[in-house]
Specification:
- Belongs to the short-chain dehydrogenases/reductases (SDR) family.
- It is found in: Membrane.
- It is a single-pass type II membrane protein.
- Its main location: membrane.
- By secondary structure, this protein is an alpha/beta fold.
- It has two domains: 1-42; 49-188, Rossmann fold (3-Layer(aba) Sandwich), CATH 3.40.50.720.
- 49% of the residues lie in helices and 19% in strands.
- The protein has helices at residues 2-40, 58-69, 81-94, 109-123, 148-161, and strands at 49-53, 73-78, 99-103, 126-131, 138-140, 173-180, 186-188.
- The strands form two sheets. The protein has a five-stranded parallel beta sheet, with helices on both faces. Strands 5-7 form a two-stranded parallel sheet.
- Helix 2 runs parallel beside helix 3.
- The longest helix is centred in the first third of the chain and has 39 residues, at 2-40.
- The radius of gyration is 22 Å and the shape is extended.
- The model is unreliable at 172-176 and 182-191 (pLDDT under 50).
Length: 191
């Protein structure tokens, strides 16, 4: 074991530092140039089809408004249809030429497949997918009793994130832009 530690400290450390010093500055410089280019030349999303899950409130709602301001055609998915209608109305006022509202629960695989197919059949394509659906619960761990809800919270991410691994033949997204918003279960402990 001492021989391994000596090898790692004497041989690998200088090699690692040398490689880091040689490649890291150009990499960071290129990354800076890339981010600069992206901030100057933003993607034109006018008339692109954007599917947003969890669009009835919070982050999903405001992502829908930002896309609407840029003229994107929106497909909004959430469980609360009344809230979705309000978001859709405001998105139309902000400049979205076409907004489709779909009531669905992304924790159910069949509903995920159904609304993706429904949206692709309606618009003929899907350019961006913003996977924002989720459930958050904040409570003391000692009083949390709905452990079955944890599975549905986590499966929201799993079902929609599984679309990311699909080939272009299985998921008709023209670009590779699939955004996943992290979901979590917050619990507090009294200790």
């Amino acid at each position: 074991m001492d021989l391994l530690h000596k090898f790692l400290n004497i041989v690998l450390l200088p090699i690692t530092l040398t490689v880091l010093l040689l490649f890291m500055p150009p990499f960071l410089f290129l990354k800076f140039l890339w981010s600069l280019k992206r901030s100057i030349y933003r993607e034109n999303v006018a008339a692109k089809v954007i599917l947003i899950t969890g669009a009835s409130s919070g982050i999903g709602e405001y992502v829908a408004y930002e896309y609407a301001k840029r003229g994107a055609r929106l497909a909004l998915v959430a469980r609360r249809e009344d809230r979705l209608q309000a978001v859709a109305d405001r998105a139309r006022k902000l400049g979205s030429p076409e907004v489709v509202v779909v009531r669905a629960d992304v924790s159910k695989v069949e509903e995920c497949k159904q609304f993706v197919n429904e949206i692709v059949n309606y618009f003929g394509r899907l350019d961006h997918l913003v996977n924002n659906a989720g459930v958050s619960q904040i409570c003391l761990f000692e009083v949390f009793t709905q452990f079955s809800d944890i599975a549905s919270i986590m499966s929201c991410a799993v079902h929609m994130a599984s679309l990311r691994g699909k080939s272009s033949h299985e998921l008709p997204v023209k670009t590779s832009l699939i955004f996943n918003v992290v979901l979590s279960l917050h619990t507090l402990s009294q200790s």
